[in-house]
Each structure stands twice: as C-alpha cells, then as structure tokens.
Specification:
Layout (H helix, E strand, L loop, with lengths): L1 H23 L3 H21 L4 H16 L6 H22 L4 H18 L7 H21 L1 H21 L7 H25 L3
C-alpha cells in the first residue's frame, strides 16, 4: 500500500513537472492534458492516505474548475467550481481547529486593499471577483489556523489567484502563466498534505 501511495504522489509531481515544461515551451495540447490530471491525482493520493473528505471534495471541485477555465465562455463556471473548493477548504479547516483572529484580520485587510485597487479595472467581473476572492481569503485565513504547512499553502493559493486577478485587470506580470501554476500546484499540495499529515503524522 505504501508503494502505491508513493507512486501516486510521484505521478502527481511528474505530471506537474511536465505541465510546467509545457507552459515554458508553449506546448498547448500538453498543457491541457497535464493540467486536467493534476488535481484528480492529488485527490486520489489524499483518498489513498485516508485523508479528509472535505479536502478530497475541494480537490475534485478544483479539477472541475481547471477543466472549465480551459474553454472560452466558461470562466464564471470555472470560478464557481473554485468557489465550491474554497467552501470545502474553509469548512474543513474552520471545523478542525481554533480561530486565530489576528491572522484573519490581516488577510481581511489584504482582501480589502486588493479589491479597492483592482475594482475599477474589473468591469463586469467586479462582483464575481470580489465574492470569489473573499472565499479564497477565507481559505488562506482558516488554513493558517490549522498549521504552518497548510497556512503556507493557503497563502500561495491567494498569491496564485491574485496573479490571475491582475491579468483580468490588464496588469501585466512577467512570466505570470508559469508563476500562477507553480504557486497553484504548490498551494494545493501543501493544503492537501498538511491536512493528511495529522492522520498519519507523516507525508
């Protein structure tokens, strides 16, 4: 069983590496093929480790979001899938540990500042982005309550989606496509593995 679990995790990182190479080399079909495998592989790994169902649900919702965002006209649907993922994460982390209101306040200020700075540039996406980013900030805050590993994952998720928000606001960041996926992949792994580690005390 341990060999199988390690193989699944190895497959996840192999696909992640291929995906990042595909982005750097602008290999469109390989980008799509590897991206849609990432979160399902991570979800299977969490399941094999007997990890929390809320985390598995978050990863599967993220997988649906990854697919939706690859198609024109499905941006809002993809955002909705990721919003559901954050609801799952927030539910799990908030129910599993005590609140840390100081950190939560800091994240709340970050959310408010970003929304104020980007609001005029978001056009018709103002309300959806504000609502989604509030859930995203909830994941960042509550994951920090749970532990250092998950807290770092939540912070990276916030960074990843902030880069996407900047793109939507026509603010150019050099290498943003690669940076978005590096931070996203790392974020999801840290959130998932941080949740699992309490079950077995090892990753």
């Amino acid at each position: 069983m341990k060999t199988t679990v390690n193989s699944i995790r190895g497959a996840f990182w192999a696909v992640a590496a291929l995906h990042l190479i595909a982005i750097a080399a602008d290999l469109g079909p390989l980008q799509f093929g590897t991206k849609v495998l990432l979160m399902p592989l991570l979800a299977v790994w969490v399941w094999a480790r007997r990890g929390p169902r809320w985390v598995i649900a978050a990863l599967l919702a993220s997988a649906a979001g990854d697919v939706a965002l690859e198609f024109d006209g499905l941006f809002i649907a993809g955002m909705g899938c990721f919003a559901l993922a954050h609801v799952c994460y927030v539910t799990f982390f908030a129910r599993s540990t005590r609140p840390r209101w100081g950190v939560t306040l800091i994240y709340g200020v970050i959310w408010a500042v970003l929304i104020v700075l980007l609001w005029s540039r978001l056009g018709d996406l103002q309300v959806p982005v504000a609502a989604y980013s509030l859930l995203l900030t909830g994941t960042a805050a509550t994951s920090s309550w749970y532990g250092t590993r998950t807290g770092f994952g939540g912070a990276l998720f916030l960074l990843s989606d902030t880069l996407i928000a900047l793109r939507l606001a026509d603010v150019q960041v050099w290498g943003d496509a690669l940076l978005v996926m590096i931070t996203y992949i790392a974020a999801q792994y840290l959130l998932a593995s941080g949740a699992v580690i309490r079950v077995t005390n090892r990753v």
